[in-house]
Amino acid sequence: MARLNDDAQWIVLMGFIVSFSLFFLAILINQSTVVGQTTAEAVSEFPKNDIRGVREVIIASESITDTTEKERVQREIKILSLSRQNAAVDFSAKSSTTHTYIDIHYNNGVAAYNETYTTS
Amino acid sequence: MISHNRHAPECGVSESIGFMLILTLVIVGIGMVTLYGYPLLMKQQVSADEQIMEKNMIVLQNDIKSLAYKTVPYKETSLKIGGGTLGVYNASSTPAISTITLYNADTSEVYVQEFHPGDLRYESENAQEDISLQNGAVLKRPRLNTGSVMIAEPRWFYDSTSNTMVINLISINSTTFMSREGIGTVQMALGESSYQYVPLDGDEVVVEYAPDPNADYSTAWNNYFVNSLNMEKVGTSTYRLPFDSSRKATLAIKKYDVFIKSL
């Protein structure tokens, strides 16, 4: 019997490595559509402009001097953000001797945003 | 180098027996593959079709989200429907594709009377399962068994800070019943939308979900109402909205009409 020639065993080893890596690649590809979809959705659905807009309007509304007018505007902000942006908005202001602190809350079911704004 | 000088005994070695052995192995191999491997492959194909359709339904759900919440007027998606058919059951089809009723339990004022969401449904022939895009949610159920799961949730939410509940009702409409198999394009347009703003003062608001007897998704909706939205089950198919009764609350109900132009 001839002695076993095992010089080419690396070919078999490479075969194993390639097939296992293909297997894992297949699993990754299978998952990628779902992951890509959720990440893309998370990025595209973050309501950056909506938050900026509503925040600006809330801050501006705090400087209205007429109390009834201010109350009416602030109520309208809440109703409008619900109807137009599909978001629940809540805010309240506290005044100290020097500053006014406005607690702003925004939630549209996907993203929630909280901020305490301090007037200078 | 001893082996070179000595021959191995070859008395029992026969070419025909070796050939027979290898041929038998090959035939048995082919037989095993056709017997067990092929059905397994077919099963894989069926589940692949289903998974693809699940993803497709999520894509269509995103289209509907764009139509409803971002007021995009028109959306179009091409998709491949394998191993079954995709059909539109519009909001006026009978028996009704589940209905949602919203009412105030204290004053018995009705906010939404039997809302018909319609259904965009994939009916798998081989897997005996249905995947539905209904009221903004993607749901799945076995056709011959009870029970169902929600693959993607609709965008209903309760905001505890402002004590506000937003309920989005999306109805799917079409001029006729349509269905499609193979590669097709789903064209959707936004129809009418309406908005209801209800200020509440410690009132108890109840949502009632009545399933379609032919396509019962009540388990999935029950889990969504109770686990995701923290509603309290008060009757067989009625749920109390999670308002904080000690404060003033707001209920916002939005209705969107999505029109399927073609499949």
Q: Can you characterise this structure?
A:
The complex is a heterodimer of chains A (120) and B (263). By secondary structure, chain A is α+β, with helices and mostly antiparallel strands. Helices cover 57% and strands 19% of the residues of chain A. Chain A has three helices and three strands; from the N terminus they run αααβββ. In chain A, strand 1 (88-95) and strand 2 (100-107) form a beta hairpin. Chain A is rod-shaped and about 105 Å long. Chain A starts with 8 loop residues before the first helix and ends with a strand. Chain B has one domain (40-262). Chain B contains two helices and 14 strands. The A-B interface holds A 1-3, 33-34, 37, 41, 78-79, 82-83, 86, 88-90, 105, 107-110, 112 and B 3, 8, 55, 58-59, 62, 69, 155-157, 159, 161-162, 164, 166, 168, 195, 197, 250, 252, 254.
Tags for this entry?
heterodimer; A: 120 residues; alpha+beta; rod-shaped; B: 263 residues; 5-stranded antiparallel sheet; 2 helices
Write the layout of secondary structure elements.
The complex is a heterodimer of chains A (120) and B (263).
Chain A: H1 9-44, H2 48-61, H3 67-84, E1 88-95, E2 100-107, E3 112-118
Antiparallel strand pairs in A: 1-2, 2-3
Chain B: H1 15-69, E1 74-89, E2 99-104, E3 110-115, E4 119-124, E5 129-134, E6 137-142, E7 149-152, E8 157-159, E9 164-173, E10 178-201, E11 205-210, H2 218-228, E12 232-233, E13 238-240, E14 248-262
Parallel strand pairs in B: 9-14
Antiparallel strand pairs in B: 1-4, 1-10, 2-3, 2-11, 4-5, 5-6, 6-7, 8-9, 10-14, 11-13, 12-13
